[in-house]
């Protein structure tokens, strides 16, 4: 019987690997690092929205605070194409900023005297409604002696209509 055991397990292994073989466009991949430290994300609570006015909103929620606000990045007048969208373009009349809330911590990109940040879109799939790319931003707690946080990560994520 021991000789046939591997043959009996083969169908079970095939069934177990089924979900891993899903269409790669349906996979939600989302990472977050705060000051270089990896933080687990909640991929069921995190959302990417695109409004009728073409404002893209990335809402990245921490796994340890699924009901919290997490990190929100706004890109106004998003052209729905690959490219890099920098926060320094706020002067051009486009609203591109970031905010972060976790527990008692509230931090904003506009609270930093120097707030470099960008979202880089590397792939757009209009039929499947997803984006892939990376983000990096600096947010600061408002008030005297506020902490500065550098937040960065990658994504391959579905986009919903807002």
Tell me what you see in this structure.
- This protein is mainly β.
- The chain has one domain.
- The protein contains one helix and twelve strands.
- β4 and β5 form a beta hairpin.
- The protein is globular and about 45 Å long.
- The protein starts with a helix and ends with a strand.
- The N terminus is likely disordered.
- Keywords: Signal.
- What share of the residues does DSSP label as strand, in percent? over 45%
Number of strands: 12
Helix/strand order, N-terminal first: HEEEEEEEEEEEE
Structural class: mainly beta
Percentage of residues assigned to helices: under 10%
Mean pLDDT: 81
Number of domains: 1
Q: Please state how the strands of the largest beta sheet are arranged side by side.
A: 4-5-6-8-9-11-12
User: Spans with pLDDT under 50 lasting ≥5 residues?
Assistant: 1-25
Round the Cα radius of gyration to an integer and report it: 20 Å
Largest sheet: 7 strands, mixed, barrel
Question: Based on CA inertia axes, which overall geometry fits?
Answer: globular
First-residue to last-residue Cα separation: 59 Å
SS summary, helix count = 1
Label this structure with key terms:
disordered N terminus, 1 helix, about 45% strand, signal, about 160 residues, mainly beta, 12 strands, globular
Could you provide a short overview of the structure?
The chain has 162 residues and is mainly beta. The protein has one helix spanning 5-16, and strands at 29-30, 32-34, 37-39, 47-50, 56-60, 70-75, 83-86, 96-102, 105-108, 117-125, 130-141, 148-161. β2 (32-34) and β3 (37-39) form a beta hairpin.
């Amino acid at each position: 019987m021991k000789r046939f055991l591997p043959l009996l397990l083969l169908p079970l292994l095939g069934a177990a690997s089924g979900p891993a073989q899903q269409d790669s466009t349906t996979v939600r991949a989302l990472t977050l690092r705060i000051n270089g430290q990896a933080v687990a994300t909640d991929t069921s609570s995190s959302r990417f929205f695109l409004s009728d006015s073409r404002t893209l909103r990335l809402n990245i929620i921490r796994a340890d605070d699924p009901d919290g606000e997490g990190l929100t990045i706004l890109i106004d007048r998003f052209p729905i194409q690959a490219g890099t969208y920098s926060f320094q373009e706020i002067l051009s009349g486009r609203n591109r900023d970031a905010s972060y809330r976790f527990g008692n911590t509230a931090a904003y990109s506009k609270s930093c005297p120097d707030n470099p940040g960008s979202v880089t879109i590397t792939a757009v799939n209009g039929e499947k409604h997803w984006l892939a790319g990376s983000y990096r931003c600096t947010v600061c707690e408002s008030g005297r002696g506020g902490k500065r946080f550098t937040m960065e990560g990658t994504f391959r994520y579905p986009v919903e209509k807002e």
